[in-house]
Amino acid sequence: MSFGLMNAPSTFRTYKQIFFILYWEGMKTVVINFVQLCEVCQRNKHSTLKPPELLQPLPIPNNVWFDISMDIIGGLPKVKGLDTIFFVVDCMTNYALAHPFTAKEAVVLFLKEVMWLHGFASSIASNRNKIFMSTFWSEVFKQAGTS
């Protein structure tokens, strides 16, 4: 069964309301199917998300390694036990560093290969990968002595 469908606001709310009153085996599947087939649910369903805005271009960099972009690509076929690549690209020269790594090595590689060689960039663009948004930045600033 796909749990992705439980992310729909009406499906999740319906499931949650029923769950506190009554539970049975296979309840999620029944709720998902019911909401998908319910004409009233589909007609009155609305998104609570803010509509996406137009993409804005990144500013033109002034210096080398002043503005960088980063990305992490994971879930690749394993090579020497590693299945993730960490990319850091200088936006002015398009010079790129790419390293295979385990998740625990990301911060060490970033500090060693980018920050210690070039200093902290004035701007860093990323795709808001969950690794970037959580432990990664906490550990970078902790290692740099920032509080």
Strand order of the largest sheet: 3-2-1-4
Proportion of helical residues: 25-40%
Q: What's the CATH topology name of the largest domain?
A: Nucleotidyltransferase, domain 5
Number of helices: 5
Features:
147 residues, alpha+beta, Nucleotidyltransferase, domain 5, 2 domains, 5 helices, 37% helix, 16% strand
Structural overview:
The chain is an alpha+beta fold. It folds into two domains: 4-44, no CATH class; 67-143, Ribonuclease H-like superfamily/Ribonuclease H (Nucleotidyltransferase, domain 5, 2-Layer Sandwich), CATH 3.30.420. It contains five helices and four strands. A four-stranded mixed beta sheet has the order 3-2-1-4, with helices on one face. A hairpin with a 5-residue loop joins strand 2 (84-90) and strand 3 (96-101). Helix 1 packs across helix 2 and helix 4 packs across helix 5. The longest helix is centred in the last third of the chain and has 14 residues, at 130-143. It is elongated, with a radius of gyration of 22 Å. It starts with 8 loop residues before the first helix and ends with a helix. 12% of the residues are buried.
Task: Provide a brief overview of the structure.
The chain is α+β, with helices and mostly antiparallel strands.
Write the layout of secondary structure elements.
Blueprint (H helix, E strand, L loop, with lengths): L8 H11 L7 H11 L1 H6 L22 E7 L10 E7 L5 E6 L4 H13 L4 E3 L4 H14 L4
Parallel strand pairs: 1-4
Antiparallel strand pairs: 1-2, 2-3
